[in-house]
Amino acid sequence: MADTCPARVIAYSSFKIVSNMFWLTRFSFIAKNAWPVVSPQLQQRCFSNGVGNFSKTLLLQFQQRCFSDGCPGGMGRKFVVGGNWKMNGTKKQVDEILDFLKKGPLNADTEVIVGVPAVYLDYVKCNAPPGVEVAAQNCYKAEKGAFTGEISALMLKDINVGWVILGHSERRQIFGETDDLIAEKVAFALDSGLKVIACIGETLQEREAGKTEEVVFRQIQAIANKIKDWTNVVIAYEPVWAIGTGKTATPEQAQEVHKALRGYICEKISPSVAESVRIQYGGSVTGANCKDLGAKPDIDGFLVGGASLKPEFVQIVNARQ
Ligand SMILES: O=C(CO)COP(=O)(O)O
């Protein structure tokens, strides 16, 4: 028999309206992103259900596709290649790098960012070819003050530098930066209007102990605890054992970690962040291995050290061509 209690009827109707709105929002996300990748049989099955079930079925299928096989075609994530110059270069060498960047040609479908030593930031910002963005390699979690040797997000903004690399393993290992400090820096830089390349990665010891996922999930979670909006974040997965060693992760090893990261982000942050956030691979990337790595569905670009100082960087930028 139908419920006649007015309070219950109103409460139930309100619940249905809110629930339908929720699924309608999901529906528009799915229509845009997932519909093209589902099978005709499933599309048929979805049509025979109501909006809620329709959306739920599709969303599940979409997540399954994305996190088992990798998001087909990268789901519109723009390939992004960063060059981390680290503490290298003189003005003459900086000019040589700028020359090969100007000569290119650089694939217009790839976002290119060079991570420059602080003293050359302004010079590179003024002399880099159009389309090449500039990143600092560090910045502190305060606007200004008594922090000798540090640079602030405000200073970077002041000279129109739009990006900063944070949490690099060399900052973690040599300068003792903790997960929490890095997360605070990421949050502060984002709040100041910078875009961030946030680096994570396990050491050889951690990999050999089977702790790769535990470590990278912990590093991501520390950041997730401090930020809400991931729009301006690129994650760089850089296994420490592959950095500067010539020992690149195989495309399969890198893809495995990238996929696991996306799955973790889907579960702990949100499916839409998992789908949209770009994850770079870093660690002995060269002109010779970039194509195979770049062909993996969850590898959305590279963070390049040594090879970013050489003309082969152009080849790496063009890995997806
Ligand atoms: O640390 C890196 C980029 O941030 C990787 O360095 P290499 O490419 O020299 O291994």
Automatic annotation (TrEMBL):
InterPro entries: Aldolase_TIM, TIM_sf, TrioseP_Isoase_bac/euk, Triosephosphate_isomerase, Triosephosphate_isomerase_AS. Its EC number is 5.3.1.1. GO terms for cellular component: cytosol. It is an enzyme of class 5 (isomerase). One of its GO terms (biological process) is gluconeogenesis. One of its GO terms (molecular function) is triose-phosphate isomerase activity. Gene3D superfamilies: Aldolase class I. It comes from the Eukaryota. It catalyses: D-glyceraldehyde 3-phosphate = dihydroxyacetone phosphate. Pathway: Carbohydrate biosynthesis; gluconeogenesis; Carbohydrate degradation; glycolysis; D-glyceraldehyde 3-phosphate from glycerone phosphate: step 1/1. Keywords: Gluconeogenesis, Glycolysis, Isomerase. Homodimer. Belongs to the triosephosphate isomerase family. HAMAP family: TIM_B (MF_00147_B). This is Triosephosphate isomerase. The lineage of its organism: Eukaryota, Metazoa, Ecdysozoa, Arthropoda, Hexapoda.
